[in-house]
User: Fold these one by one.
Assistant:
Number 1:
Amino acid sequence: MGELILGQPALKIAVNTSVPLDMTSAISLMVRATDEQRFDSWLVDARRRLDLDVRHDLETLLGFSGRLLYYIEELLMSFDPFAPERLEASFADYLAHLKGMSDEAYHQMAVNSIRRVHEDLGMPQNVPSNGDRQAWRDFVQPGITRANLDEVIDLLMAPEQLKTRTVRLIERFWNECYGPEHERALPDLRHAVRQASGRTYPSVESAFTDLSGHRLPEEVRSALDHVERVTFCPSYHLGEFVQFILYPPELILYFNIQGSADDSARRNGAATLPEDLLPGLRALSDGTRLRIIAMLREQEMYAQEIVGRLGISQSAVSRHLSVLESAGIVEVRPDCGMKYYAINLQRVRQIANALEQIG
């Protein structure tokens, strides 16, 4: 995308994706993804499937540094993700970096993230210089969103535990949740980088509006004088959420890539419908299959449960499930010789959005 000139010196703009950049976006979105009306269905469903201890660490470690989740930003920026040798970093590279940092480095990143919360509030506060627990409570309290205050204090008092739990969360989030999804989305992320890199814009604001469909947040716009480089990063599950990392002199702006082609077509007066819309509509055209979807909306179920609740033959249920699976509306998870079925809300919403375009 070349350079954007906003006074002096020149403000550089780039488009990039990497595992650390994308994973930071995903884990930050997942901690917020409690409302299926606001957030991407994959995020909401994946959050529900997290082990309780992983979810607890997610809310603790991303819930003590304000609404912008500064602690996870500190982890990312400690890696220097835009250094030339790290632009293609793998998860193994990022994890090795996190494991290699000292306990004290984690304590300092946590303190820095809370200090940034105070600065946002316009009331900078000195970091407690001793083990006075009440002083630490007063310091940490403004940053608490989801975490338990006393648990956070305990972690700050024991940096080795803070490091252990942070590394464990990142590793488990990748291995048990996001790693396979990133691999699946990677071709689309790279395609989005290539497309965006071929465009030019007169300003950061116009680039962000075109790529994301949103206006640049005022807190970002007003800080551009302190930024030297802007990096646009595609996100597969961002949806309508506005996400950025303002870490002068760096600014990272995330933009959603799902539906971007359809949005462009609508702006040009054309409707682009998914090629597999018709199988989905056929799958939804049967009353029994709609009943199955309604049941799976409540919870994952195995085939015999569905048979029992519908009161029809197992062979008939199997045929209906096969149609729904072929259309991508339900997903199947084998476990101990049984098949468990769950609704694919993302696919259902894709069909609904395609129908809305027709209107």
Number 2:
Amino acid sequence: MVFIKGKYKIAVYAICKNESKNIEKWYQSMKEADVIYVLDTGSTDNSIDILKKYPNVIVNQDIIFPWRFDVARNKSLSYVDDKVDICVCSDFDEVFNKEWRKLLEERWLPDTTSIRYTYNWDFDNLNRPTLTFLLNKIHKRHGFSWKHIIHEYVEYNGIENVIYVPEIILNHFQDKKKPRNNYLSLLEQAVNDNPNDFRDIYLLGREYLVYKRYHDAIKMFNKYLFFNNQISNEEVSIVMNLLASSYMNLNDIENAIKWYKKAITTLPKNRNSYYDLAVLYFNNKDYNNSYIYLKEAIKISKEEDVYTKNSNCWNEIIYDYLSITAFNLKKYEESYNYSLIAFLINPNDERIKENYNIILNNYKKYKGEL
């Protein structure tokens, strides 16, 4: 094996099954590593042939049965050479920003165990992140193993020394056509095997939301909250938001409002719940309450370093909502000011541009200029 003459020996490792359409883009992102290890778990397309064309890619094949994500990840990690210093786990629908290796080598220290970095999970139609996490799948070669049958995570067997490098950005471009029909059964199996594992309870509740099984989701989220002495306020707030969303989908507005307000009380310095509650009120034409909670949201001037972020709380969308709620409350000057902010943030959005022009004309009439 030939390593780049860098500060550290770096390897990417991944599991693959029928990823032929994603490989080229993924490889171009990952090739900054010295070597890339791929464990193919049963591709029936030409993924293996494509991967073998690249000079620094090593492909192994193994069928994992019965399927467990943690077993597959651990198997793929086992193929990584012992001489590697830093391991980078990635999926084929993920792409790093350029020069991620340079950033990694600049910040990694001899006693570092893992890195926390920015993970953009979803994007809007302008390719701006709408949901962002902190991820930890960059770690040293030894002492780590993967846990959990699904929604697996990597765990160190000692005392961690974690470094935060938000400048390293991994973007996720989910293939929504790819089947995930085994996720639900795996999560149900996980909760059945260990009914007190609150992480799997949460994940099962979230999966029920995907399947629109809202009553089942509510049951899981309420069960999760029984463990609130073991989980952070941020996690409690996230689950309360999901409870509110479940009730909203059942058209139970009263309970939805109740849980959004509980989420706000639990994590008062985070915009997400204020925004979500304001949008609920807006959709129900309660512009006064929508206005109140939007105003409370923008009072929070600093974006907290939290696990999940809804970018609509910080971009033009929140000001667009404010402009419309203020307009409906006949607060025309405020309406104009907020529509101008939204327009200046994103002048290329035709709907926002049209809103701005309508509100501007109305404001001029209000001032007697037209």
Number 3:
Amino acid sequence: MARETDVEVVIIGGGVVGLSCAYELAQSGRRVAVLERRAVLGAETSTHNSGIIHAGIYYPAGSLRARLCVAGRQRLTQRLVDWRIDHAICGKLIVAVDENEEPLLAALLDQGRANGVDDLRLITAREALEREPCIAARAALLSPSTGVFDVEDYLRTLAGHVQAAGGMMITEADAIAVDRSAARLIVQTREKGKLTARFVVNAAGLYADEAARLCGDERHTIYPCRGEYATVIPAKARLIRGLVYPPPEHLSLGVHLTKTIFGELLIGPTAQYISQKNNYEWGRMEPREFLSPAQRLCPALRESDLRWGPSGIRPKRYGPGEAAADFFIERQPDDPRIVHLVGIESPGLTAAPAIGEMVRTMILETDS
């Protein structure tokens, strides 16, 4: 790459959200460059999860998380078909193990319907056991349109479509400064020189607060929250056929059972605030610590069935004890050439196609 490159839009962050923004802008004819600080696209957050296609059940009606998840799922599912990405719309059961949890299912049903998820239904224990014979359930909420997919293949294909439309992928390019003093924005990288652009999109995930500060926006703080998984040995992975969840918790959707697109059975994720954004492994839980929540859903699991699994870090906008926050997707108040996307955690993977469309609209409106 030349020491100075001129494009229309620089996107800071090469995860699924940044690539989705790049895809929409490149398809609309914009010259786009994606800057990714790591050597591999999506290696920070996008591939550190279980690859769920969420329906949009859990989030407050009217919130960005709800609206963009519902819209994003429709677009994502169609892309997976069109691009021949390995996926399965296997459905999900949210399970009430005891009678105290049954009202929570009814509340989730109402919440999902308010968000436009119109295929949810409450089912009996018998119906739940027909779908998942090895679980414990008094009742369940069935989400038929929930599924799993191959995230890494999707990211590679998405990046390929961006490049086919003329977009650039610049890896190992850590943005270290944004100069706003001229007619065009100047983005300086540590390793790959500088780029000039009409617009900058901050899709830096865990580092979105730091990227915002480079642009002169001091409003944002990311609180890293690690989620850990245990895996189940292959001989016992057959115990679960699809996706089995408890009612959600404050920080996450609860420790659940996920049969991935590759046939692996995951238990997790947990939720723990950490001080370092790159601490995926230090101080991790022992696999046996996953047994109790796992057995509550699937009593046949044993401690000897569990092994270490992957981990990921959520880029939360709220810290310990604070109320949950919505996605932040806005232009910078003192410089509308810059769009910030902050706190794009779950269901960001599913919502990403709709986020890309929203950012494209914002750029085009500013440019008109």
Number 4:
Amino acid sequence: MRDYLVTETVFQGRRFMAAAFYEGMRLMNLRVRPREEESCVGQIRTGFVADRVGNIGGVFVQSGREKFFISSFPKDADPGHIVFLVTRDALGNKSPTGTLALELAGRYAVVRQKPRGLSFSGRLSGEEKRILRKWLEGFDARGLGILVRTNAGRAEKKVFLEELAGLAARFSGILEEAGTAGNGKILYRPDPFYVEELDRTRELPDRILTDLPDAFPLLVQKKQLSAELCFYGRENRALTLPELYGLPRELEKLTGRAAWLKSGAYLVIEKTEAFVSIDVNSGKCGKGRIPEETYRKINLEAAEEAVRQIMLRNLSGMILIDFINLKSRDHREELVNVMKKLVRRDPLRMDVIDLTPLGIMEIVRQKGEKSLAERLGLSDQEARRG
């Protein structure tokens, strides 16, 4: 049973909105937001150039009361009327960022101004691309570019085309409104993060559960996903929804350095300025009669847990996993192949680069939003520890 929870929980005295996927009561993916925080990522806004950063060709755009940094600004763009997409919230002393590459994303596709034409996710098979391309014959894209996402490989034709038509119509309306909108106008606000998460996931839930009256109506619109939608009333319940699924305890574990495995081995996760390191330790797991076979099993177990921890903690950039060294070339190749399959679970792009002779695997994960530690408001020192 795959469950999706939308709830509120407490961490170190602060209240957080949480969206969590569970498989058989095991937490597999998690996003949190401070209850009082409103993200502006995904908004399409208007503004004007307030300052230029000449050495890198960037500009600061004033939009309402806020300034957004855009790193690449064309010389022929109108500095007095800019329409941009917010790509990152403010982080510490860093300003929020934006891009002139406007787009709208759905579960199955992304529509955008440029580049025009049709493109496909690299994770779609050749046969899936052929079928989807045929579905799109004669489709009116309204002069927009279309990127077909991985999830489209499992879509029904009618649902896919209806979503795409809706995205194209909405985007065309936004662009039309942008032409006459004044400064600081928010032309588009994305769905709340817990609704967006249902579009990002590859494995749809069997059940959607929430105990939040304000979230329930927004989740109703996702009923076409064929998941059972349940409201978990708080009256006469021995446990709250977060307590029932052990979410507060999970948050405490995810802010620590160690992650234990069933075998007795464990991972040590460290976040530095340059990269994330994950060290695999045999711990309480004995060598057994055949050490090589024991280490092989520990590494395979560690690989699965490492991917889970990366997703849960939302770690990104360069990630180095120091596995227990294996003598067998076949075992090393097996580890790489298993890891390549595991990273496909991630809604974000995660690539396995290499495994060195000493057992260090290099992985690169797409940079998205803030890490879990940053979302929880931990200090820099605590955040570096993961």
